[in-house]
Every structure is written in C-alpha cells, then in structure tokens.
C-alpha cells in the first residue's frame, strides 16, 4: 500500500480517529514486529488515553522470536496487553478474544456495578499503513462475522463486526500516519513498505540495510547470495548484483536493480527472520 501523507491527510486521519475513538472501549494497535517502535505513531497514546490498550506484534513470522518475546515484555511493562500474531497465516489469532476480555475487565466490572449487563466491548484496529490492519481484521472476523447496519438505500453508517456476544469490532481500521523526524526511523519505515520508496533512493536504502546486517546479522548476506560480505556496503551490493546477474548494457553491474531485488527479499522474509530494532535501545 502506497500512500503519501500531507498535512491535510494527517488532519483528516486524526479527526476521524478522534471521532471513532469516542465510540470504543479498546484500541487494538498493530505494529510491525520487525520495527515495533518505528511503526508506532506516539500520538496514539494521547488519542487513546482512558481506553483499554492492546498492542499486536504483527508479522511476528518475519521477526526473530527472542526479540518478539523481549518486545512483548517491554510493552507489558508499560501497561499494554500484548499478543504476537501472524495475521497472514492466522498465528495467535485464536487467543485474541480472550485477551480482549482480559484487557477490558475493568470496564466490564464498572458496567456490572452500574447494573449494565451484557453490553459488548467495542474495539477498533489502528496502525500506520502496511502493518497488516486489513489482513488482521479479516483473520479475526473470518467468515463467521455478522455485520450490523449496511441496509441498502440507507446512508452507510458505522459498520460493526460482531465477533461474539461480548465483542464488537469497527470494520474499518484507523489509519495512523507514519511519523519520523529522524532519518533512521524513516529508513525503517521504508524497509517495511510503510512509506514510498521513491522518497529515498532504493540504493541508499539497500546500503543502509547491508550495513545493519553486516553488524547485527553477520553471515546472512554471505549465505543468501553466496558472496563475500566482508567489504564495505557498496562492494557488498556490487557482489549481490554480480551473483544475481543484475547487469545493464550487457556487462555493467546494475546496483539499482540489485538494490530493488535485495529490499524485496527482505520485505518478503527471504533473508530469514530479522528484527531491526531492539528494546534496550529505548529508554
Ligand atoms: P494495512 O495497510 O495495514 O491494512 O496492511 P494490509 O493488511 O494490506 O497488509 C500489508 C501486507 O502485509 C500484505 O501484503 C499482507 O499480506 C502482509 N501481511 C499482513 N499481515 C502479515 C503477517 O502477519 N505476516 C506476513 N508475513 N505478512 C503479513
């Protein structure tokens, strides 16, 4: 999904979020498990204050398991409920309904004391582009869902998906804008495809990732491409171009093409499970 953010978009997204958030008890925030901090927009904490909060480490299949666990602990220590999920394959989805009840137990208790019984918990999925919001909603709602509203001829109102007698989910996710003041965060958002590649040169992106892998995942490049990965990042990229026969005009190495191929390999998990940021680097 490629969509650029301008001030007008941000204002509109924020306004919609403020409207929808009034209707709900629980914010289900999706982040990309490979970059759990960079794929958040911290304004959600202000928007979602006084709501129950659940963070889903989505695409957990693409990140390293020990770091998924470390990140889950990190967010739990800050008071969030957390679940590792793979929305594409359905991993972790079954536990969600139980976790929702647990995350909302204070609200359910408050209702009970006021004599309100069986009012379903209302939840909404939020996250920046490409973290897997639609995939998650489909995985959670599955086929069993019964939508409310949506009568022909009637202005389309809010659509709620009834997950069970206790939980209703807003059918459209809240889109948070990707936020980056800092170049490192911008690069990470480009790696995961949440911001348009053209903003940054593909080659610059690839060189940064190569440097990161050399430092944190020694051996991955050598193994994947059958190359010597010991040189500087640009030499490595040329080696990838050579090993993958990326050539222009017959014999010159095409490093742009190699960069594209390499970024694509990363995005699709073909370099293995990789986590790009680590909890110890935050507070
Ligand atoms: P949205 O923009 O947040 O609604 O994201 P989408 O639901 O459109 O998903 C973006 C891409 O990520 C799609 O290609 C999905 O198939 C993929 N995707 C979503 N969830 C997962 C996941 O848990 N694991 C993997 N490997 N891919 C996922």
UniProtKB/TrEMBL annotation:
<dbReference type="GO" id="GO:0005525">
    <property type="term" value="F:GTP binding"/>
</dbReference>
<dbReference type="GO" id="GO:0003924">
    <property type="term" value="F:GTPase activity"/>
</dbReference>
<feature type="binding site">
    <location>
        <begin position="130"/>
        <end position="135"/>
    </location>
    <ligand>
        <name>GTP</name>
    </ligand>
</feature>
<comment type="similarity">
    <text>Belongs to the TRAFAC class YlqF/YawG GTPase family. MTG1 subfamily.</text>
</comment>
<dbReference type="InterPro" id="IPR023179">
    <property type="entry name" value="GTP-bd_ortho_bundle_sf"/>
</dbReference>
<keyword id="KW-0547">Nucleotide-binding</keyword>
<dbReference type="Pfam" id="PF01926">
    <property type="entry name" value="MMR_HSR1"/>
</dbReference>
<dbReference type="InterPro" id="IPR027417">
    <property type="entry name" value="P-loop_NTPase"/>
</dbReference>
<keyword id="KW-0342">GTP-binding</keyword>
<feature type="domain" description="CP-type G">
    <location>
        <begin position="10"/>
        <end position="178"/>
    </location>
</feature>
<keyword id="KW-0963">Cytoplasm</keyword>
<dbReference type="InterPro" id="IPR006073">
    <property type="entry name" value="GTP-bd"/>
</dbReference>
<dbReference type="InterPro" id="IPR030378">
    <property type="entry name" value="G_CP_dom"/>
</dbReference>
<dbReference type="GO" id="GO:0005737">
    <property type="term" value="C:cytoplasm"/>
</dbReference>
<protein>
    <recommendedName>
        <fullName>Ribosome biogenesis GTPase A</fullName>
    </recommendedName>
</protein>
<dbReference type="InterPro" id="IPR016478">
    <property type="entry name" value="GTPase_MTG1"/>
</dbReference>
<feature type="binding site">
    <location>
        <begin position="86"/>
        <end position="87"/>
    </location>
    <ligand>
        <name>GTP</name>
    </ligand>
</feature>
<feature type="binding site">
    <location>
        <begin position="58"/>
        <end position="61"/>
    </location>
    <ligand>
        <name>GTP</name>
    </ligand>
</feature>
<dbReference type="GO" id="GO:0006412">
    <property type="term" value="P:translation"/>
</dbReference>
<comment type="function">
    <text>Required for a late step of 50S ribosomal subunit assembly. Has GTPase activity.</text>
</comment>
<feature type="binding site">
    <location>
        <position position="174"/>
    </location>
    <ligand>
        <name>GTP</name>
    </ligand>
</feature>
<dbReference type="InterPro" id="IPR019991">
    <property type="entry name" value="GTP-bd_ribosome_bgen"/>
</dbReference>
């Amino acid at each position: 999904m490629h969509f650029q953010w301008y001030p007008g978009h941000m204002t509109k997204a924020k306004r919609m979020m403020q409207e929808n958030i009034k209707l709900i008890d629980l914010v289900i925030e999706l982040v990309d498990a490979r970059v759990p901090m960079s794929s958040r927009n911290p304004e959600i904490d202000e928007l979602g204050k006084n709501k129950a909060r659940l963070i889903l480490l989505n695409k957990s299949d693409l990140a390293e398991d020990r770091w998924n666990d470390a990140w889950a602990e990190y967010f739990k220590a800050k008071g969030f409920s957390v679940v590792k999920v793979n929305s594409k394959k359905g991993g972790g989805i079954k536990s969600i309904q139980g976790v929702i009840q647990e995350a909302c137990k204070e609200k359910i208790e408050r209702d009970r004391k006021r004599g309100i019984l069986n009012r379903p918990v209302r939840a909404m999925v939020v996250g920046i582009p490409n973290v897997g919001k639609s995939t998650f909603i489909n995985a959670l709602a599955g086929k069993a869902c019964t939508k409310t509203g949506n009568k022909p001829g009637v202005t389309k109102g809010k659509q709620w998906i009834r997950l069970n007698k206790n939980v209703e989910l807003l059918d459209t996710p809240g889109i948070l804008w990707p936020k980056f003041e800092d170049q490192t965060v911008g690069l990470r958002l480009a790696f995961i495809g949440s911001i348009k590649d053209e903003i940054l040169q593909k080659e610059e992106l690839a060189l940064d990732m190569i440097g990161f892998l050399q430092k944190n995942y020694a051996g991955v490049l050598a193994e994947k491409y059958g190359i010597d990965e010991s040189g500087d990042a640009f030499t490595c990229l040329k080696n990838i171009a050579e090993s993958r026969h990326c050539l222009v005009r017959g014999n010159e190495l095409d490093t742009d093409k190699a960069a594209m191929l390499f970024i694509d390999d990363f995005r699709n998990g073909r370099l293995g499970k990789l986590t790009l940021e680590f909890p110890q680097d935050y507070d």
